[in-house]
Write a structure and sequence with these properties.
There is one protein chain. This protein is α/β, with parallel strands linked by helices. The protein has a single domain (2-254), classed as Rossmann fold, CATH 3.40.50. It contains eight helices and ten strands. It has helices at residues 9-26, 41-52, 80-89, 109-122, 159-165, 185-188, 204-212, 245-254, and strands at 2-6, 31-34, 62-65, 67-69, 99-100, 128-131, 153-156, 179-182, 193-198, 230-235. The strands form two sheets. It has a seven-stranded parallel β-sheet, with helices on both faces. Helix 2 (41-52) links the parallel strand 2 (31-34) and strand 3. Helix 1 (9-26) packs across helix 2 (41-52). It is globular, with a radius of gyration of 17 Å.
C-alpha cells in the first residue's frame, strides 16, 4: 500500500487529479469510479481545471458510481446519481451516456445489485476507484463487520449515518432514505487501482487502523492492504496517528511510483 502525506486537502486533490489525468492520457476511455461527499470535491475541481485548460482530454472517459440511495424518485437532487452528474459528469463536459450506476428505484433491488456487478464486469472493470473513509473505517456503505468478500448489495444505514446525511436533506433525518445500494468490498477490490483520500483529524484513527492495523472486517477499509495497487492519500491531520508517518513522508518526497500511475 502506498501512503502519500500531503499538506492539505487541496494538495491531495491536485495529486489525485493528476493521477487520473495521467490514466486518461494512457487510456482515454478509462472507467473512473467516483465517490460522493465533500472529501473528493477538490479532486473533481482539479480534474475539471485540467480539462478546461486543455491539459487532458476526458471526452471518452466513462464514470461509474460507488453507491446509491434506495427509494428516491428519479431525478431527486440528493440522489447520488444526480450528485455525480452535477459534480463530475457535467463539469467534465460528458453526457449521461458516459455514466453508469445502480438503479436505486428498481422494483427488484437484489436483481438490480447483481445487474450492476455484471455491468461493471462487462464494461471491462473499473480502472481507478476513488474512495473516502468513515470515522469507523467504512468504505462505500460497507459498515464495520461487512464481509470482505461482499458484492454489490442493499444495506441498512446506521443511525449515525442517518444523522450525518441529514444535512443534505435540510437537516431532516426523516427525509434520509434508510437503505442504500453499495458496491461490496469484494466488488471494490476488483478495480485495478484504488485511491483513498482522507482529510482531517477526525479520520486519523480510521486511517491508522486501515494502514497499520490488522486486516479485519471491523475496519472494512483494511481490506485495501490486500489489493495489488492501493494508494492512500492523507493530509497531515489525518496522518497524525500513523506510526510510520516519517517513512511515508520520505517515500512521498522521492515519489518512487506515484508519477508512473
Amino acid at each position: 500500500m502506498e501512503v502519500v502525506i500531503v499538506p492539505d486537502a487541496k494538495a491531495g486533490g491536485e495529486l489525485i487529479a493528476e493521477a487520473m489525468a495521467a490514466l486518461l492520457r494512457r487510456k482515454p476511455d478509462a472507467l473512473l469510479g467516483v465517490a460522493t461527499g465533500s472529501t473528493p470535491l477538490p479532486i473533481y475541481e482539479a480534474l475539471t481545471g485540467k480539462v478546461q485548460r486543455g491539459e487532458v482530454d476526458a471526452s471518452k472517459a466513462r464514470i461509474c458510481q460507488l453507491d446509491e440511495y434506495v427509494g428516491l424518485p428519479a431525478g431527486h437532487p440528493e440522489s447520488y446519481r444526480a450528485t455525480v452528474l452535477r459534480q463530475v459528469v457535467e463539469p467534465l463536459g460528458l453526457t449521461e451516456a458516459s455514466f453508469m450506476g445502480p438503479d436505486g428505484s428498481a422494483s427488484d433491488i437484489p436483481a438490480a445489485c447483481e445487474a450492476y456487478d455484471r455491468a461493471l464486469a462487462e464494461a471491462g472493470g473499473v480502472d481507478l476507484q476513488l474512495l473516502g473513509i468513515g470515522t469507523d473505517g467504512h468504505i462505500g456503505f460497507n459498515e464495520p463487520c461487512s464481509s470482505l468478500a461482499s458484492r454489490t448489495r442493499i444495506k441498512t444505514l446506521t443511525e449515525q449515518t442517518l444523522v450525518d446525511n441529514a444535512r443534505f436533506f435540510d437537516g431532516d433525518i426523516e427525509q434520509v432514505p434508510h437503505h442504500v445500494i453499495t458496491q461490496g468490498i469484494g466488488t471494490i477490490m476488483e478495480a485495478r487501482h484504488l485511491v483513498l483520500l482522507a482529510t482531517g483529524e477526525g479520520k486519523a484513527d480510521a486511517v491508522a487502523a486501515t494502514v497499520e492495523g490488522p486486516v479485519a472486517a471491523i475496519v472494512p477499509a483494511s481490506a485495501l492492504q490486500l489489493h495489488r495497487h492501493a494508494t492512500v492519500v492523507v493530509d497531515e491531520a489525518a496522518a497524525s496517528k500513523l506510526k510510520l508517518a516519517d517513512y511515508f513522508r520520505h517515500t512521498y518526497a522521492n515519489k518512487p511510483t506515484w508519477q508512473g500511475l
